[in-house]
Amino acid sequence: MKFLCNWLNENSSQKGMNIKCTELNKNEISIYNKQLTEKINNGAVAILRVNQLTEHYCLLTKLDDEYAYIFDPYYLNITYYDNDEDVEIIKDRPFEFNRKVKNSRIEEGENKDFSLVRGENSEIIIIEKY
Question: What's the Cα-to-Cα distance from 84 to each of 8, 16, 87, 125, rounded to whole Å?
């Protein structure tokens, strides 16, 4: 992720992308991080490293006080999370998000689906237009 972030920052203007990337420090990684919240609310997106059977990346596109709205590239049956009160599969917003996850789940320290990976492998990068 560090390589991707650096490459975007060094090459985006040359490629006509007009974006910049910010990597959060390991001790700042939280769905409640003020910088993350402000940037997401101003139209940025973030790539999160989360748990989902194994470590996995997904795209955070929207955030409110209770939920994170995520685009997860992994296809699952619409009923996959029926017995999980913290995660919902969304089918009618394909250009915005396809998962709705409680913020408390993302912050959970256990290896549950969509909880942030903790420790040395913990990562969040923010991508925004400039």
Answer: 36, 42, 6, 27
* Secondary structure element (H or E) that encloses residue 3, with its range: helix 2-11
Tokens standing for residue 103: 């913020």
* d(C-alpha 30, C-alpha 103), whole Å: 10
| Cβ contact 61:96 at 8 Å | yes
The number of residues in the chain equals 130
* Per-residue pLDDT at 93: 94
**Sheet-wide strand order for 124-129:** 19-23, 124-129, 45-52, 54-63, 67-71, 99-102, 87-89
Element containing residue 41 per DSSP (H, E): helix 34-41
User: Backbone phi, then psi, for 87, in 5-degree steps?
Assistant: -130, 140
Task: Give residues with Cβ within 8 angstroms of 83, minimum separation 6.
Answer: none
What's residue 110's pLDDT? 86
Q: Is the pTM of this model over 0.90?
A: yes
Strand, coil or helix: 27 = helix
